[in-house]
Amino acid sequence: MPRIVTLPNALTLSRFVLAPVFLVLYSRGDTVRALAAFAAAAATDVLDGLAARVLSQYSRLGAFLDPIADKFLAACALFALWERGRLPLWLPLFVISRDLAQLAGAAVLRSIHRRIPVAPTRIGKYATFSLAATVVVSLAWELLDWPGAAVAPLVAALGLITAECIAISFIQYSLFFVRSMRMSRT
Hints:
Blueprint: H1 7-27, H2 31-54, H3 60-83, H4 90-111, H5 122-143, H6 148-182
């Protein structure tokens, strides 16, 4: 029987805890601690995969929870930053739309007993990184009170790079979905 309580799974679960902590801190105007909470949560995304490889503690649960934790953290951060006027609404809506489409696709595949691809793609990892960079720069902009005219173009560029990576990853996952739909039952 596979172990459920592993260091990588604990790191993933900590992301579920840190996302609302980030929201509470940010909504209270504590940008320093909010940035620290976001950075810690983002670091767990790197550390859980590293721990799984080094300790040989891969688990189906971890493979399932890791992307959900990423999406939860991203949604919390993007909508919080939009609410403060740091990001345009289209970015969190675009990210959430892709995530909901992936969830719906996985539900369809599961209902017809097809394989659900859970492995992240390289471009999906780039999307996660660029999204985290967008959030960190947006938080630093507020924290350091940088002039909007100087930082807004950088945040816009990062947001566009994030959107491009997300669009490409969505196409990749759509192709995986179509391929899984065509496969015989596994």
